[in-house]
Specification:
Length: 196
């Protein structure tokens, strides 16, 4: 098998959460290693036209970024960490870089969101959650189309749900919680019921 490896640039820290689009755009996170757990520092992107660059304009302070996906139009989605009141774990908020920063918010009644997929139309999928610590978390899959409010996916499913990826036809790959807390892989096609 023949292949090529391209050096896209130098980052002086560890890197993670690396994604590549069908047009070769790359996005990920630069980690600052502190000798214990790594603390992500900056989201970065690479394009053939601009080369490697750290993304500016992220919330400050936002000690933890995750990149979920990047599409062919260089739109990056992911999430950043923020503090929740009390002794609960930190929350996350979904974001989009197109090219500037936009917080995507949450579904009504939820306090956190994580974006994991974006297609070429700019439709974003992910999961909203409530950290009911120490009780079980509540998770619901979402979809957000460009210019519209965030909406629930798998809304007929009573338990937890997650959305991980979306293709050019708007089909969504995700998971739902079945009886006995097992997770079932699902594919959602617009206008149809989820396939399990």
């Amino acid at each position: 098998t023949r292949y090529k490896i391209y050096h896209v640039g130098q980052i002086d820290q560890d890197i993670s959460d690396i994604h590549v689009s069908d047009t070769g755009h790359v996005a990920g996170v630069q980690f600052i290693w502190d000798g214990g757990d790594g603390t992500p520092g900056h989201t970065f992107r690479y394009t053939v036209n601009t080369g490697l660059e750290l993304v500016s304009g992220m919330p400050d302070p936002a000690p933890h970024h995750q990149v979920g996906d990047v599409n062919g139009a260089e739109i990056i989605v992911g999430n950043y960490m923020f503090s929740l009141p009390g002794s609960r774990p930190a929350g996350h908020m979904a974001f989009m870089l197109d090219p500037g920063f936009t917080s995507l918010g949450t579904l009504t009644g939820f306090e956190s969101s994580l974006a994991w997929g974006v297609n070429s139309s700019g439709s974003v999928v992910g999961t909203c959650n409530n950290y009911n610590y120490p009780a079980a978390d509540e998770n619901k899959a979402f979809i957000k189309h460009s210019g519209l409010s965030m909406g629930r996916l798998f809304h007929t499913i009573p338990g937890n749900s997650w959305a991980w990826c979306i293709n050019e036809d708007g089909q969504v790959g995700g998971a739902i919680e079945g009886l006995g807390d097992e997770r079932l892989a699902v594919r959602y096609t617009p206008g149809h019921s989820p396939l399990m």
